[in-house]
Task: structure prediction
Amino acid sequence: MEFFLVQLLNGISYGLLLFMLSSGLTLVFSLMGVLNFAHASFYMLGAYFAYQISTAIGFYPALVVAPLLVGAIGMLVERFGLRTVHRYGHVAELLFTFGLAYLIEEAVHLVWGRAAVEYRIPPSLEGPLFMVFTSQYPIYRGFMMLVSMAMLVSIWLVLTRTRIGLVIQAALTHPQTVEALGHNVPRVFMLVFGGGAALAGLAGVIGGNAFVTEPGMAAAVGPIIFVVVVVGGMGSLAGAFVASILIGCLQTFSVGLDWKIAWLNITVAQTAPVLPYLLMVLILILRPRGLLGTRDG
Amino acid sequence: MASLRFQPFNPGRWLLWGATAALFAVAPLVFRESFALTMLTQMGAFIIFALSYNMLLGQGGMLSFGHAVYSGLGAYFSVHVLNMIGKGTIVFPVMLLPLVGGLAGLAFGIVFGYVTTKKAGTTFAMISLGIGELVHACVLMFPGFFGGEGGVSTNRVVGQPFLGITFGPTIQVYYLVAFWCFVCMIAMFALTQTPLGRMANAVRDNPERAEFVGYDTQKVRFLQLVLAGFFAGVSGALSCINFEIVTDENVSALRSGGVLLATFIGGTGFFFGPILGSVVFIFFVVALSGFTQAWLLYLGLFFLAMVLYAPGGIASLIMMQLPVIRAGRLRELALPYLLALAAGLVAFAGLVGVVEMVYRISDASLDTQMSLFGIGFDAQSVRPWIAFSLVLAAGLVALRFTARHVGERWGAIQNRIQGRQP
Result:
C-alpha cells in the first residue's frame, strides 16, 4: 500500500510535467499543423536558463524569467523561421524544427559543456512535505504539482474565458473566417507557438532540478511526449492529459517493480524504457485514432 | 520526373550508369591515402542507406525518423552470421553477407511496417520515431543477442579465400562495397520505374485520388517500406563488414537523423540527390569531425539553411541550372554567383571564428590561446570577438545584397528563356 501510494504520487507529478510539455505540443499541432520537433529542446533551454539565472539571482526569479526568455525565443523562431518555410508545406516545417533541435543541442554543448550542470533544488523547498506511512514525500514534488496545476488552470481560463482564448479556439477550426473578421491570425500563431515554448520552458525550470540538467535531456523526453500525443489522440488536449498521467504512472510504477519476467530473463524495472512505446504500438493497432482522438489519419 | 516513354535503348542512361561504374572503379586509384579509402568505403555504404531512405521520403512521401532500425538490425544479424562463419558452424560466402542483412531488414520491415504504415504524414513520422526508440531500448535490454553497450565485434577475415580475396585489406572491402552499392543503385532506380514505384509517387502526391482509382494506399506504403528495409539492411551488413563491430549506435536516433539530414541535403526530388547528400554528409562526419568539435553545429546550420532557402536540396540546385545552360546563358550568371559565394565565405569565416571562440571558452580544459586561418589570438580578449562579429555581420549584409542580385538576374533570364519559347 505504501509503495502504491508513493509511486502513484510520483507518477502523477511526473505525468503533470509531461502534460505541461505535451499540451504545448498539441496546441501548436492542432492550430498550425506543425509537429514541433524542437519542443523538448525548449524544455532543455528552460532548465539551462533557470540554472544560469538561479545561480545569479535565485530560483524564484528564474521561475518567471526563464520561461519568458524561452517563450521569446519560440516567438522569434516562429516569426523568422517557421513562417518562412510554411510555404514549402508541413514536411519542411517539421524538418526545420528537427534541424533546430540539433542546433539547440549543439549550442547547449558549446555553451554549457557536455556534462550535467549542478542545477539544484532551492534550500527553501528541500525537506519532507508529509509522511506516507514510513516514507517521506518531498516538498519539491508537491511544489511541482502545485506549479503544474496552477499553470493548467490558468491556461484553461485563458483559453475559455478571455478574448484571445476565444480567437485561438476559433482559429483552430476556421482560420480563414477568423482572419476575415479582422484578427491577425499569423500573430495568434506566433503567440501560441511562443506560449507553447514558454510552457515547455517552465516544465524545464521545475523538471531540470527534480531530475537532471544535461544536454541529453531533450532527446530523452522528446520521444515520450510524442508518444503521449499519439496515445492521447492527435490534437486532443484532454487526450493528452489522460495519456500523460497514464504514461507517467506506467513509467514510475514499472521502475519500482523488480518482478522477474521468467521467459525473457529480465525484470519489470528493466523494461521500463520500452513500455511507453509498446503502449503506443498497442494503441495504434487497437484504436488508431488514440484514446480521445477525433480524427483518423 | 518526366513522363513515361518506351525506350528500349536509352544511350544517355547507359552513359550515365557506365560513368558511375567507372567512377566507382577508379576512385581508389585517385585517392590513394588510407584515410580517403575508408571515407570512400563509408560513402558507398551510406549511399545505399540514403537511397533506401529516399524510397520512403522522396518517392513515398513518408518522413521516417527511425530508418536506422532496419539497417541496424540487418547489421546485428549479419554480425552473428559472420561470427558463425568464423567458428565454422555454417559455410557461407562473406561476399553474400549483405543478402543476410537485407533479408533481416526486410523481415523487420514487414513487422514494423505493419504498424507504422497504418498512418501517413505527420503521424507516420511520430510513430516511426517511437518504433526507433522502442528498438533502441530493446537492443540495450537484451545483451545476450545485442551485446549491450559494448556491442558485438567480429572479424571479417574468415572462411576460405575466394580467388585470393580475404577482405583483409581495406581496398578489397572498398570494392565489395562499391559492387553492392552499384547493384543496389540500379535495383532502386529500376524500382522507381515499376508500377509500385509510380503508385508510391501517386500516394505521396494525392492519397485520396490514388484510393479512388482503386489502390490501397496503406498497402503501397507498406510494400515501399518493406523494400526500403531490405536495402537498408544491405547497407547495415556492409557497414558491419567495414567496421567489424555493431553497437547500439547502429539503431540509434542519431543514425536515423543522420540519414534524414544526408538525404534532404542531397535532395529528395531526384534519384541522384541522396547520392550527393551521402558524399557531403560523410565528408562532414569523417573529415570535419577531425578538425573541430563543433562539426555537428555546422552540419545543423547547413541543414537549416538548406531547409529555409533550398528545400529541393543540392540536386535541385544543380537541375535548376540545366535550362540556363541549355539556353547558353550561364555566363551571365557566373559573376553574380561568384560574388554571392565570396560573401557567403566571408560570413562563414566570421561564424567559424565566433563558434570556435565560444567553444574554447566553454571547455575549461582547453587553452584560450588559439589560432584560426593562420592568425593566433586569445579567445578571452575582446578584440577577436569584435573582429569576427564584424566579419560575420559584413558577410551577412553582403550575402543579402548579392543574393538579391542573383535573384534579379535569374528572374530576368528565366523570363527571356520562357519568352522565347511560349
In short: The longest strand of chain B covers residues 369-372. The CA atoms of residues 116 and 123 of chain B lie 9 Å apart. Chain B is about 75% helix and 5% strand. Chain B touches chain A through 47 residues (CB under 8 Å).
